[in-house]
Amino acid sequence: MNGLRLGRLGLLLALCFAMLVPAGVYAADSAAPAATTDADTAAKLGLLLGDGNGVNAAYLAISATRIQAAIISLRLQGRLAEAAAYQGTVNFADAGSVGASNRAVLAFLKAHPELGWNGTGGNAFMPLARISSQQLYKVLLEALGYRSGTDFDYAQTETFAAGKGLDQIAGNASITNAHIATALIEALAANASDGMPYMAMLQASGVLPASASLPAGERIRLHRDAKLGTIFTDKAGRTLYFFTKDAPDPNSCTGDCLKSWPIYNGGADLQIPATLNAADFGVLQRTDGTTQTTYKGWPLYYFAKDQKPGDTLGEAVGGVWFAAKPNYAVMLGTSATLGNYLTDAEGRTLYYFDKDTKGKSSCAGDCLANWPAYSASGADLPTGVNAADWGMITRADGSKQSTFKGYPLYYFVKDVKHGNTLGQNVGGVWFVVDPVKFAGTTAPVPKTYHIDIKDYSFGSGPLTVEAGSSIVFTNFDDMKHNAVAVNGAFALPLLAKGESYTITLDKPGTYDYYCEPHKAFMTGQIIVK
Question: Which residue blocks in 305-439 are alpha helix, DSSP H?
Fold first, then answer.
């Protein structure tokens, strides 16, 4: 039994890591990052075969498919060679969507419904459809000697897998090659159903050399908390935290603070899931001589009152401690002079422009070169930051910009490191964003104005409006009229009696205009402030 299972897992490893990277891509050197991914570990064990292109973020992001899962299943049952050589002609209707070798596999599955791959209905298999973490964990559990329907119900697959140490990719409706890498390393570290470590069994069978070993150091784990979402824990399941006062000074927690919030030091052998970026992890040399692991520039801590795995008693303590997460859209910094303020996930300060109006940016050209627009890549928010206050606008050039309470967020080009706030009060119009106190800008609120064209006139005197306001021209004369800006900013079509046309002027300035058919005497002026 053990020999059969060993052969199946060896085949599984060879298959799955062949989809990732070739061996030797990750050569250790003095410039190695402060963390090693699960893909790195598999390569060092000689299990990564790759497709000849190496590994990069784009490749690891490729979605895994049903045909990949089916091949894994066949390898686990020792029947892949038989399936690949199958000559049967009866097949699923959509077998033509894959290559010839995989068509043979599909025909074999069609001929052997007892293997559990009966298609998706209507004689279709959907070989290129994405697979979920639940489906992959079912395959891995069976590799470890557990049986669906006997040892666990399929609906409870991920709960059962978590009890066996397989939970890092749980909850994903569509998994990627990076997820596969992490799940396989979990399988290597797990025990089979008979209690024997799989690593030892692989070595005993010769699948891995006797000298091979899994890293014995620390590990960052991804834990799905029912309230907080995905958070970081250490390998024992203890929650890790960020401290907002570390934004301006990463050594802000000292003395009694460290008694309540001990530092986390993952050491030189820190392991991380393949879905994380090793370059995001670093090592802080603290002023007291100790070293501390950082993520995106934020030092990582424990909370002394967290007594058991999964405890998150440190969340939002004092409004300055938050569970570390991989995908914050925004974080908080805290300084003695500015209080709390928004930063990006790396701790870089975010600002608002007091000339902006809700939902609209007034910063373009040279302004935008000095104050780049911020567009969040993550989705998580610190406790206390209202999700309803977080949004996105589309700029005039089509790019996206994140907003808080409807107002666009920016960086300052002179803020070059974690915690800089050099943009505060620049020109009296740029300010950090206190998420509690911020209520909007002081810029005039755009309004709607009307210019009635009557008796061959645009009315008496210039019209003064706020930037972004709408201006509605309506013709009340029997004769057709229009309005054309001298500087080309706008040009209305000829309006018949009763017709209207609306323009919006965003740029402050003076706009002189005229009616083309009656240019000599029909003129007007709009002043945008």
Answer: 366-370
At 432, phi and psi to the nearest 5? -70, 165
Longest CA–CA separation in the chain, Å: 100
DSSP category for residue 330: -
In sequence order, the 6+-apart residues with CB closer than 8 A to the CB of 12 are 72, 75, 76, 139, 140, 143, 184, 187
Name 387's Cβ contacts closer than 8 Å, sequence gap at least 6: 381
* Rg of the chain in Å (alpha carbons): 31
Q: Is 239 helix (H, G, I), strand (E, B) or coil?
A: strand
337-384: pLDDT as tens digits? 999 999 999 999 999 999 999 999 999 999 999 999 999 999 999 999
Determine the 3-state secondary structure of 69 from DSSP.
Answer: helix
E-assigned strand segments in 327-378: 331-335, 339-343, 351-353
Other CB atoms within 10 Å distance of the CB of residue 10 = 18
CA distance 169 to 157: 13
Handedness of CA 61, 63, 68, 73 (dihedral sign): positive
CA nearest 67: which of 154, 10, 128?
Answer: 128
Burial class (CB in 10 A: 0-12, 13-18, 19+), 449: middle
All residues at 6 or more sequence positions from 364 whose CB lies less than 8 Å from its CB, including other chains: 396
CB contact at 8 A, 459 and 515 = no
SS3 295: strand
Half-sphere exposure of 150 (CA within 13 A, CB side): 6
Q: Cα dist. 128→95, 100, 131 in Å? A: 10, 14, 9
Instruction: For residue 494, give the DSSP letter.
Output: P
Element (H, E) at 135: helix 133-143
Give the torsion sign (CA, 257, 260, 266, 271). Answer: negative
Contact between residue 331 and residue 396 where contact means Cβ atoms under 8 Å apart = no
Model-wide pTM > 0.85 = no
Separation of alpha carbons 76 and 83, rounded Å:
13
SS (H, E, C) 441-463: CCCCCCCEEEEEEECCECCCCCE
- What is the separation of C-alpha 219 from the centre of its chain, rounded to a whole number of angstroms? 21
The DSSP code for 379 is -
- Under DSSP, is residue 430 helix (H, G, I), strand (E, B) or coil? strand
Half-sphere exposure of 91 (CA within 13 A, CB side): 21
Question: How far, CA to CA in Å, does 374 sit from each of 110, 185, 329, 344?
Answer: 52, 36, 10, 8
Number of helices (H), then strands (E), in the chain: 12, 23
Tell me the per-residue pLDDT of 128-178, one tens digit each, with 9 for 90 and over. 999 999 988 998 888 788 988 999 999 999 999 999 999 999 999 999 988
